[in-house]
Amino acid sequence: QYGAEDAGGVGYVPPGWSFWYALEKNSKYYNYTLSVNGKARRHGENYSVDYLTDVLANMSLDFLEYKSNFEPFFMMISTPAPHSPWTPAPQYTKSFQNVSAPRNSNFNIHGKNKHWLIRQAKTPMTNSSIQFLDDAYRKRWQTLLSVDDLVEKLVKKLELNGELDNTYIFYTSDNGFHTGQFSLPIDKRQLYEFDIKVPLLVRGPGIKPNQTNKMLVANIDLGPTILDIAGYDLNKTQMDGMSLLPLLRGDKNVTWRSDFLVEYQGEGYNGSDPTCPGLGPGVTHCFPDCVCEDSYNNTYACVRTLSTSWDLQYCEFDDREVFVEVYNLTADPHQINNIAKTIDQEILEKMNYRLMMLQSCSGATCRTPGVFDPGYRFDPRLMFSNHGVRARRFSAQSL
Q1: Fold held by 81-264+299-393
Q2: For the Sulfatase N-terminal domain, which residue ranges apply (predicted)?
Q3: Rounded (5°) CA angle 202-203-204
Q4: Which candidate, 321, 298, 312, 303, places its Cα nearest to that of 384?
Q5: pLDDT (tens digit per residue) in 200-248
Q6: DSSP string spanning 302-320?
Q7: How far apart are CA 118 and CA 137, in angstroms?
């Protein structure tokens, strides 16, 4: 986390930033320390001057007001909302009183045929767990109302400055979140759609309003897109992602990916989680009724493939079970049925092969589908020994 002493403390400002305002550690709304261009600034619990989402908004407005020496400019704002402890601004504490978490078909059911971490969740959930996750869902929405205010203020400021029409604005998030799916109360660390899918809204020059593009894009595409906007030659980089500009501008002839990589490295306590000592070492983020949201062997890699006939997700876990999960999201959008044992063997082989290629690629080679070796045979007993790149690649990216 930023601000740790072994990483330079709050005095460290990464190269390339003209203005740097950064939260020490993570996820605070009050009572925190900011690094303001390398100088520590302590904030308390007075809403009018300390509520972090609003503080970031005001700092951003100040930058837009006094940035005359920085043209063109790049500004990135990362708010604490909607992370826990989900502290809304005072004026929003009564909002969404009748809202509860969605009750989709995968809500509060047993995660049968899934990785052991999902299977260990208690079904049905206790009333206290359901009440907790509904409350968290409402509070997350409440905190996002302040983010809405931030966005509105920035857009109006850009308009007032006469810069709105030549400024690109990207609105997105770093991960999804689950609230009761497969009886997991709340968290974000699983391979399923509700945890890996994020919003991405973009406006800017040459982008037609009110359009939706359903091509496969990922957070690794944001860096190449920003460099492309700046006029940098992407062929000089080793970035795995692709520039979104052709898609955003409606280029009908653009060649685009049909699959993408999802990776996660599980976390756990070396000892027992203090909430659930009876479960032994290796788990973490456990609820009082001992439903744990993560473990060391919740380490997985997936390939998601989209075609005109199907939307498939193939995942492998790096654990003793050599566990595999496969979902046809066209027929099963809530990923209830793991079809790893029933899907055609040739499809398994192709997706396993493609996963290995995506894990070992770099730069431009990640943007092409590659050619399947017809002599390749999938053997789940050997899949991790075959993936020699796995240990080196897991920390490279995660959705």
Answers
A1: Alkaline Phosphatase, subunit A (3.40.720)
A2: 21-232
A3: 130
A4: 321
A5: 999 999 999 999 998 999 999 999 999 999 999 998 999 999 999 999 9
A6: EEEEE-SS-EEEEEEE-ST
A7: 21
